[in-house]
Amino acid sequence: MHRAVVLAAVGAWIVGTAGLVPTPVAGQEFRRLPVKEYRDKMKAGWIGQIIGVSWGAPTEGRYQQIMPLDKVPSFTEDLVNNAFDQDDLYVEMTFLRTMEEYGYDVPIRQAGIDFANSGYALWVANAAGRNNLRNGIAPPDSSHPKFHNCAGAIDYQIEADYSGLIAPGMPDVVIALGEKFGRLMNYGDGVYAGQFIGTLYAEAFFEKDVMKLIEAGLRAIPSESRYAEMVRDMIRWHQENPTAWEKTWALAEKKYNQNKDYNISALDVKREGAWVLMGLLYGQSDLDQTMIISCRCGFDSDCNPSSSGGILFTTRGVSNLPEKYYRKLDETKIFSHTAYNFPKLLDVCEKLARQGLARVGGRVEKNANGQEVFVIPAQAPTPSRFEDLKSPGPSAASVYTDAEMAQIRSPGLRWASSFLDGWKLSNCNLDQSGMLWEEQGHKNVFVLNGLTRGEKGYVLAKTLTLRPGRPTALEFVAGCDPKTSGWKIAVKADGKDLATETVNKASMTDGWTLIRAPLPADADQPVAVEITTEPVTPPPERRGPPALSLTLPKVVNR
Question: What pTM was computed for the model?
Answer without folding.
Answer: 0.88
